[in-house]
Amino acid sequence: MAGIFLLPALVLLGALVVYPIGYSVYRSLFDASGDGFVGLDNYREMFSDDATMTAIKNNIVWVIVAPSVATALGLIFAVLTERVRWGTAFKLVVFMPMAISMLAAGIIFRLVYEADPDRGVANAIWVSVHDTFKESPPFPGAHPRPNAGLTESSNGSFTTDATAKAGTPVSLPLVAAKRDDVSGAQDAKAAKPEAGKVTGTVWFDFTKGDRGQHNVLDKGEKALADIKIEAVKDGKVVATTTSRADGTYTLPAKADGAELRLPAWNFGQPYNGVDWLGPSLVTPAIIGSYVWIWAGFAMVLIAAGLAGVPRELLEAARMDGANEWQVFRRVTVPLLAPVLSVVVVTLMINVLKIFDLVYIIAPQTSQDEANVLALQLYQSSFGTDVNQGLGSAIAVFLLVFVAPVMFFNIRRIRRERRR
Q1: Which of 98, 252, 308, 360 has the fewest CB atoms within 10 Å, i.e. is most exposed?
Q2: Inter-residue contact 265 to 229 (CB < 8 Å)
Q3: What is the CB neighbour count within 10 angstroms for residue 319?
Q4: What integer pLDDT is reported at residue 180 of this predicted model?
Q5: Any residues with CB less than 8 A from the CB of 140 and at least 6 apart, and which?
Q6: CA–CA distance, 82 with 324 (Å, rounded to integer)
Q7: Every domain of the chain and the residues it spans
Q8: Considering the entire predicted model, what is its pTM?
Q9: Residue numbers of the chain with a pLDDT score lower than 70
Q10: Domain formed by 67-124+276-383+401-418, architecture
Q11: Do residues 366 and 278 touch, judged by C-beta distance below 8 A?
């Protein structure tokens, strides 16, 4: 009688689990066409293929890093929000990403990691922090005209051909500054000679329609402020200054007889952040998006376990003189060990089959560096060079990879039932 009730479940189990596993093992022993028996050749090819080996290495990184970080953050969030009034609201916000599909999360983080700071949130924050502590070049790409009396050095700086003389203003005209950098600038002002000092003007030597004279300060031409100017004698910098809002500058008497140099920093490209999806950072970046999604899951499970921790034990530890860190490390964490193991094992199984986040977030240029086994399986089975024999071999290997974690989880469940 019991067999009748079990029959539908057994049929579904056989059709959805046993048969696909058996057929994958069988198919892995044949070539791409499925007609020629090749034995273990697909497995040999799998371990000799650079893409597959990269995928295996990345999967190992995923298994170690992603569950550990997500569980640690979940534990921290659960403990810290236990005593605050707005803890429930915070938990709701942290758990909300679980309601988003992996596809949607991948699209969100593809935009977050956009290289352009004007579009990508990560680089917008990173550039803002960088620019807070380090000054940005004022006029990227600007340079003098060929006949302006300034010679470019190999390091990108520009030096005057003639030496400066005190009391004689030195003009430093530049072109090719970006419109946005000069649109709000003041009109340039001709510097007045000062006894015993070297003066001059730095300006954008361009008028609409290019109707002005070259290397001459025409009416309405814009000043270039914050340009660094160095006075150089015998290869040594003897004085430095910065141009004012009206483009004028003043150097002390020791600049008399020196060459004036505009350092390359003035014209360097601004800091545009980090290439989050480049070959070196693409895997950590994708793991970060995974943690954003699953830290809430870890937090909720750990918070549920934390609610069952006897408060008397925590109070007894405090009465014995333990500080909060000691209570957390020596009492709370050991009591939460069963819950933490559940979270870690669940996340390990989950990351072993990660596919969609990598497929969506990693650009084509760095997808090989971000490759994982599930993605390699898909590419081998349905990509450009279709080889379902090799894809089946990868699927079997992935099953073997997951099996130890699953067996550990099953044993843990059985031990808990015996208690």
Answers
A1: 308
A2: no
A3: 8
A4: 85
A5: 178, 181, 267, 268, 269, 270
A6: 14
A7: 67-124+276-383+401-418, 150-267
A8: 0.81
A9: 1, 416, 418-419
A10: Orthogonal Bundle (1.10)
A11: yes
